[in-house]
Amino acid sequence: MTYKLVALDVDGTLLNDDHVMTERTMNTVMEASNKGIEIVLCTGRGPQNTIPFMEKMGLTGYVISHNGAATVEVETRDIVHQFGMDEKALNPFMDYCREKGVHFDVNTAFGMYVDNVETLAGPVRHMYENYLMLPSNLPTWEELKEPVVKFTTFGEVADMEAVFEDWSKWTLPFNMLRSGEYFIDLMHEQASKGNALKQLAAKRGLKPEEVLAIGNYYNDITMLTFAGMGIAMDNSPVEVKAAADAVTASNNDDGVHEALVKYCLS
Predict the structure, then answer these.
(1) Nearest to 135 by CA among 115, 164, 121
(2) 77 and 54 together in one domain
(3) For the chain, which terminus, N or C, has the lower number of CB atoms within 10 Å?
(4) CA torsion sign, 241 to 245 to 249 to 254?
């Protein structure tokens, strides 16, 4: 099969555990692009800390950001599509986080907000530095002019498991998913990487069987199952591997390079 679009997750997939895209992987992605394959980064990150990876590779086109909640055109920064949330329905979740001491941030397509930037320290500040983002102070809902597309909590694995268990007992108006060991995301109930990739493929006139997707975590399952070829990284949980059509090497062993050579460049 000749694949015309490749959707790549970023953290844990395109990047190694040091948050670095190796020269080997970068050159292979660029080679695939030079052969006419459209490259789309499909990530839990926002566009502002995803687009620089596209620009570093000299790529244009689109990024699917915030786990599918916002699709953005690289060159213009235009929002092609976004799933806006009912922000007032987030109030009980914010109250829970404040009561339990769980860190959270609120995301619009291009903005990220926390309760108090001045109090960010330790692992929380280090996390934002790793992801090349520094949030702003959260305004009131009335002052926030752009739609909220994602609400994220961050903490130790055991703490996130406890939060996930608690919220699973609620009647949720949102799509809740684990986007990493240390993260829980709430989004519009229709927002997912798979839905966003499906919309983008239709916009580009592509069938699912012309799409290849590579990812490593639970938030990638919907895009792996939408694509004609879904590839899990070796560092993926067993459930993600089970949802994929194939498994490649880990993110620390240039698994994206290996998969693109095997399925796109051979």
Answers:
(1) 115
(2) yes
(3) C
(4) negative
Please tell me whether residues 12 and 32 are part of one structural domain.
yes
Residues 38 and 125 in one domain: no
Rounded to an integer, the average pLDDT of 147-159 is 96
Token pair for 233: 């990284």
Per-residue b or e along 105-124, where b marks 16 or more CB atoms closer than 10 Å to that residue's CB: bbbbbebbbbbeeeebeeee
- Whole-angstrom CA distances from 116 to 96, 110, 127, 144 are 17, 18, 16, 16
Nearest C-alpha neighbor of 12 from the set 226, 125, 180 = 180
Give me 202's structure tokens.
């239709």
Same domain, 147 and 216: no
Domain encompassing residue 102: 87-187
Do the beta carbons of residue 24 and residue 257 sit within 8 Å?
Answer: yes
The helix/strand/coil state of 83 is: coil
Q: Do you know the residue count of the chain? A: 266
pTM of the predicted structure, to 2 decimals: 0.92
CB 27 within 8 A of CB 89: no
pLDDT band for position 132 (50/70/90)? low
Confidence of residue 134 (pLDDT cuts 50, 70, 90): confident
**What are residue 151's DSSP bridge partners?**
106, 186
Single-letter amino acid, residue 10: V
Segment 37-88, tens digit of pLDDT:
999 999 999 999 999 999 999 999 999 999 999 999 999 999 999 999 999 9
Q: Which residues pair with 212 in a beta bridge?
A: 6, 229
Residue 129: predicted pLDDT: 80
